[in-house]
Design a protein that fits this description.
Elements: E1 6-12, H1 33-40, H2 47-52, E2 71-75, H3 84-91, H4 109-119, E3 125-129, H5 132-146, E4 150-153, E5 158-164, H6 165-184, E6 191-198, E7 206-207, E8 212-215, H7 222-228, E9 232-236, H8 239-242, E10 250-252, H9 257-270, E11 277-283, H10 285-291, H11 296-316, E12 321-326, E13 345-350, E14 357-358, H12 366-376
Parallel strand pairs: 1-11, 1-12, 2-14, 3-4, 5-6, 9-10, 9-11
Antiparallel strand pairs: 2-13, 4-5, 6-7, 6-8, 12-13
Helix pairs in contact: 1-11, 4-6, 9-11, 10-11
Length: 396
């Protein structure tokens, strides 16, 4: 197979396309991010995604099943868990055999006391599972008054710390989270997340885009292997955080979908005269703004925005280029609760060199990592679990 020179992987964070085979084990039977939100808003028009083949992956009101111009299939997650870390790691070839620790009733006092001491904070508010926006409304004013950060978790393995950007200080919040990351390592918590907010009253509080994720360090993976082989690996959005800032030649820590898409286009243009470039982009709005907040209308609007950007990418591509659109998990904005949902994720792969194809479901998202290595002719590291590149089923 002729190798590619520029590869872009857009991860639509929380974009599921139907309940996974093991959805019952996660309490997620009936979840379908794309299908349910399309129905909830009375149908959605996504003409560019439709042409690429999105409509062949399920029944989505407003999106027809046409002969795809891309290689399309559904990917099941093999890892234990349904969070951002396990999803992105599996896309990079890693399968998490043991799920990260969950704390649905809050964190043990010995841990919170240790983090408070390491981070030099006077104590915590909250320490429970909660919606991020709701708990800031509930405890934000008290946090400003007492100087105590807000600690909360969710259905994912996350140690989330919210504090006011001005009254507590953004840099100080980052320092507390860095201390928390060190202290929480023995507890196998997937991520520590800084959740800054602004505003002075319950009615005006708003989370900002200065969020930072402090992930547990991943084992060697495809990102490492590509960088070590001389591929120019670039991170856009929170990707660098998820991979512990390892293996990237350049980064742009954007905070929303529009900025991330623009940054990706910019890196794509700059790579025209460079050998072998891989751009790994997270599109956070689907999950952070709409999925967790259970807002199907807002989610649909972000999908329309993505759809309108796709022609800008396709117009720049030649036969040496590959565009991938996939996801890390589901986050059905119509489902009960506020957590992620265990779903198939889409894989839409487009290159001008090949005709489209609707392929069967695949048993692991790690097949994306195998394809990334094959795209650049890089030998898979021996430590990675065996995966099957979808390119073998598509390209001559």
């Amino acid at each position: 197979m002729k190798k590619f020179r520029r590869v872009v992987c857009l991860v639509a964070d929380g974009f599921g396309v139907g309940e996974a085979p093991d959805a019952a084990a996660y309490g997620d039977l009936g979840s379908n991010t794309m299908g349910n939100l399309a129905k909830a808003v009375g149908g959605i028009r996504l003409p560019n995604l439709e042409k690429l083949g999105l409509g062949t992956l399920g029944r989505f009101d407003g999106v027809s099943a046409v002969d795809p111009k891309a290689f399309v299939c559904r990917l099941a997650e093999k890892s234990q868990g349904k969070d951002t870390t396990t999803g992105h790691w599996e896309l990079a070839g890693l399968v998490t055999e043991k799920a990260f620790a969950l704390f649905p009733s809050g964190f043990p006092q010995e841990l919170t006391d240790a983090v408070a001491k390491a981070g030099n904070v006077p104590g915590w508010l909250g320490n429970k599972a909660a919606s991020g926006t709701t708990i800031i409304e509930e405890l934000g004013e008290e946090s400003i008054r007492t100087g105590k950060p807000i600690l909360y978790t969710s259905g994912d393995s996350v140690f989330q710390i919210a504090a006011h950007e001005k009254h507590f200080g953004l840099d100080r919040l980052y320092q507390v989270c860095e201390a928390a990351r060190r202290v929480t390592l023995p507890y196998q918590i997937g991520r520590v997340i800084a959740r800054p907010f602004v505003g002075e009253t319950k009615a005006t509080f708003k989370r900002t885009e200065n969020r930072r994720d402090y992930s547990i360090a991943p084992p060697p993976n495809c990102v490492d292997a590509l960088g070590e082989a001389g591929v120019n690996v670039i991170s856009v959005g929170k990707i660098e955080d998820i991979f512990d800032h390892r293996g990237f030649a350049a980064t742009n820590h954007t905070g929303n979908n529009k900025d991330s898409l623009e940054a990706t286009l910019g890196f794509f243009d700059k790579a025209q005269d460079k050998d072998r470039t891989f751009i790994f982009t997270n599109l956070v709005d689907f999950d952070m703004l709409w999925g967790h907040r259970r807002d199907p209308k807002g989610y649909a609007g972000s999908l329309v925005e993505l759809d309108q950007y796709l022609p800008k990418f396709l117009a720049k591509m030649n036969e040496d280029d590959l565009l991938l659109l996939t996801a890390d998990h589901g986050c059905d904005p119509t489902f009960r609760g506020t957590d992620h949902t265990r779903e198939y994720v889409p894989l839409i792969a487009y290159s001008p060199r090949a005709a489209g194809k609707r392929s069967g479901d695949r048993g692991s998202m790690a097949d994306v990592g195998a394809a990334l290595l094959q795209s650049f002719g890089v030998t898979p590291p021996p430590a990675l679990p065996k995966a099957n590149s979808f390119l073998t089923d598509w390209l001559p």
